[in-house]
Design a protein that fits this description.
heterodimer, A: about 575 residues, alpha/beta, Rossmann fold, 6-stranded parallel beta sheet, globular, B: about 120 residues, alpha+beta, Alpha-Beta Plaits, 4-stranded antiparallel beta sheet, 4 helices
Chain lengths: ~575, ~120
């Protein structure tokens, strides 16, 4: 279980015999190139100027965002859509602090991220110098690993180790804080180094787990499978799908697990949790054997933890032992890379004769638990999303910001692509989607990228419209505009006697005019357009034009102001206590 | 009360990460002592050890243990009885004796200067 490594376990990559003298900034960039980095996102400033000075000709393309938070979210989008490490750069002080939300976001959602921050001169550290902050100290609980570089000579080893930890095991964010004088100074550079990984522990495929698991399976009457992001991160989607096909038990996904299971599978019940499907939540509540594949089981998935899957034995496949037993003790932890433990389980389970679970399957996946048709004020918005998503090319990527639109999008976009739906799930960072979409579109230039935001979240990083326009990125931006902080308002309505304290955004700016100011074409669509069945040719044409444009486009959809997201498991309730409308 | 011995490589921030796992749960640090631990579980490198006394429930014991193991340079976590630490600490380490807050030791002048 312990991580084993040594700081000195680095080996030079063979390079030219004569070591040239290079500036620290140049060394950083050469090390980034050695890690396969060709794209970074950032915002310059005083302490990191030497690194920017070395960018030209380095082979590293820099994307200037209009805020450091935009940079770190864009790096996240790049990483989430590719599985590669995203890189964000910022200066010291406010530049560094503006990265912090993105770092926390990456930690929660296991996103591989390397943040490089400039720091004040070595001699000035600790003096409260201009734009000095202790970014190393303030991010200790948010990063997987971090270093404040002390000498120019250690830069290659630090960069190599940073990338190793960012992408290894359960991926996460790391920080490398480099004083500006070290980036200006020169030193001999004999080439990038490789960080020698620690000896891998053989936690996978141990016979004990297979035997115990098989025994649990053989006695289970109502088994289910819950799939989280870990299945995607491990790259074990093919193996997972093969296993689920073989088991043929009811399966569902967390918001980050969407796309891991083929949505057309007969046993797939959709998203689970606070705004999950009725079928998924009921099956999870009734199960007697819960197989968890790479999910944290956070409170949005479990509801009241004391009443979560009350009759279930839990088998938890997880690479990060620190995620076990957080909410409910598991009966059988299977610690290891899912790319190894899932095939090991599949091999083992093929050797036994599985019980007949058809009766359970017919209940859990049966028509009695099919989703109710959308009702109430949300109906036009849901129809709008259905109309939009039904026109998307296969393998499109949909990003959702945070709030009601996020849950509607998660409920309605049935992607079959493991990285087809991207959102800030763990931290729930409003303002995530637009800059993240920039990173996604740059990583996947041929892919249709749709960014769904609310009117509140969109304004949190609205300045990134400038980045979209500068790069002519054909992102399809949608604002679901209810002129409220909708999800908070929904809770205020349901649990705070409609006391809409500080959630009214009825004085929103005209988003179409704002887009025009950024030279981005924009559309407006009223919700009445979604009350026609089928939608009019004009509306259909608008959606087609919007999606198939080769340029950035913004579409503002006017949503009913008091539309709510249902089903909903109220905070503190059990998953079986879903409510389906305002009544 | 439970005693914890966490062995780690003394790299930047590792001790602070260990302590952060405690502070984020608002647990009181009743006793903490960090020291070099020659011969500890770190093949190929020097080992350090931090010993803590914490008032924790069984669930927190498991969570802390796993959180500490998730820290890159933590090599081993051992759990022991509180008595094994308190007996040792009271006899061998003067710092275990209660003492007034450090600020009371400053002169009026230095305190004023610090607050200026």
């Amino acid at each position: 279980m312990p991580n084993a490594t040594t700081l000195s376990a680095t080996a030079p990559i063979p390079t030219t015999p004569q070591a040239p003298q290079l500036k620290g900034g140049e060394i950083v960039l050469k090390c980034l190139r050695a890690e396969g980095v060709d794209l970074v996102f950032g915002y310059p400033g005083g302490a990191i100027m030497p690194l920017y000075d070395a960018l030209d000709g380095s082979g590293v393309r820099h994307i200037l965002t209009r805020h450091e938070q935009g940079a770190v979210f864009a790096a996240e989008g790049y990483a989430r859509s590719t599985g590669k490490v995203g890189v964000a750069m910022a200066t010291s002080g406010p530049g560094a602090t503006n990265l912090v939300t993105g770092i926390a976001d990456a930690k929660m959602d296991s996103v591989p991220l390397v943040c490089i921050t400039g720091q004040v001169r070595t001699a000035m550290i600790g003096t409260d110098a201009f734009q000095e902050t202790d970014v190393f100290g303030m991010t200790l609980s948010l990063t997987k690993w971090s270093r404040l570089v002390k000498t120019i000579e250690e830069i290659p080893a630090v960069i190599a180790e940073a990338f190793y930890w960012a992408r290894s095991g359960r991926p996460g964010p790391v920080i490398v804080d480099i004083p500006t004088d070290l980036m200006k100074a020169k030193a001999e550079f004999s080439g990038p180094v490789r960080f020698a990984p620690p000896a891998a522990e053989d936690a996978q495929g141990k016979p004990a787990f297979a035997e115990k698991l098989l025994a649990l399976l053989e006695t289970a009457k109502k088994p289910v499978a819950l799939v989280g992001a870990g299945a995607k991160i491990s790259g074990a989607i093919t193996e997972l799908r093969a296993l689920l096909d073989y088991l043929n038990v009811p399966a569902f996904a967390t918001v980050h697990g969407l796309g891991a299971v083929d949505p057309d599978s007969s046993y797939y019940l959709g998203m689970v949790g606070m705004h999950g499907t009725r079928a998924a939540n009921m099956a999870l509540h009734e199960t007697d054997l819960l197989l968890v594949f790479g999910a944290r089981l956070d409170d949005r998935v479990t509801g009241d933890p004391t009443r979560f899957a009350p009759d279930a034995r839990i088998v938890h496949f997880e690479i990060d032992p620190s995620q076990l037993d957080r909410v409910r003790p598991c009966d059988l932890p299977v610690v290891g890379d899912l790319a190894q433990t899932i095939p090991a389980f599949h091999d083992a389970v093929r050797k036994i004769s599985l019980p007949n679970w058809s009766a359970w399957r017919s209940i859990a996946c049966g028509p009695d638990r099919a989703e109710l048709d959308p009702r109430g004020l949300a109906q036009p918005t849901i129809r709008f999303l259905d109309e939009l998503f039904s026109r998307l090319p296969k393998d499109s990527i949909v990003l959702a910001d945070v709030g009601q639109h996020q849950m509607w999008a998660a409920q309605r976009y049935h992607t079959n692509s493991p990285r087809g739906f991207i959102t800030s799930g763990g931290l729930g960072s409003m303002g995530f989607a637009l800059p993240a979409a920039i990173g996604v579109q740059l990583a996947k230039p041929e892919t249709t990228v749709v960014c769904v935001s609310g009117d509140g979240g969109f304004q949190m990083n609205i300045q990134e419209l400038a980045t979209v326009q500068r790069l002519s990125l054909p992102i399809k931006m949608v604002i679901v505009d209810n002129k409220f902080l909708g999800m908070v308002r929904q809770w205020q309505q349901l649990f705070y006697q409609r006391n809409y304290a500080e959630t009214d955004l009825s004085d929103n700016p005209d988003f179409v005019e704002i887009a025009k100011a950024y030279k981005i074409h924009a559309w407006n669509l009223g919700e009445e357009a979604m009350r026609q069945f089928p939608v009019s040719d004009e509306t259909g044409g608008l959606l087609e034009s919007f999606l198939h444009s080769k340029k950035p486009e913004l579409l503002v959809f006017d949503c009913q102001r008091e539309a709510n997201v249902f089903p909903m498991v109220p905070a503190g309730a059990a998953l079986s206590e879903m409510v389906f409308d305002d009544e | 009360m439970q005693a914890f011995h966490i062995y780690y490589r003394n790299t930047q921030g590792t001790l602070m990460r260990i302590l952060t796992a405690v502070s984020r749960r608002a647990l009181d640090l009743n006793y903490v002592h960090a020291e070099a631990a020659p011969g500890g579980p770190n093949p190929g490198g020097p080992t350090f050890k931090v010993t803590m006394l914490l008032d924790v429930n069984p669930k927190q014991v498991g969570q802390l243990r796993r959180d500490w193991y998730a820290i890159v340079d933590v090599t081993e976590v051992r759990i022991a009885s509180a008595e094994s630490v308190t007996d040792h600490a009271s006899s061998s380490w003067p710092g275990a004796t209660p003492h007034p807050p450090a600020t009371t030791r400053g002169t009026d002048e230095t305190v004023r200067a610090a607050r200026a």
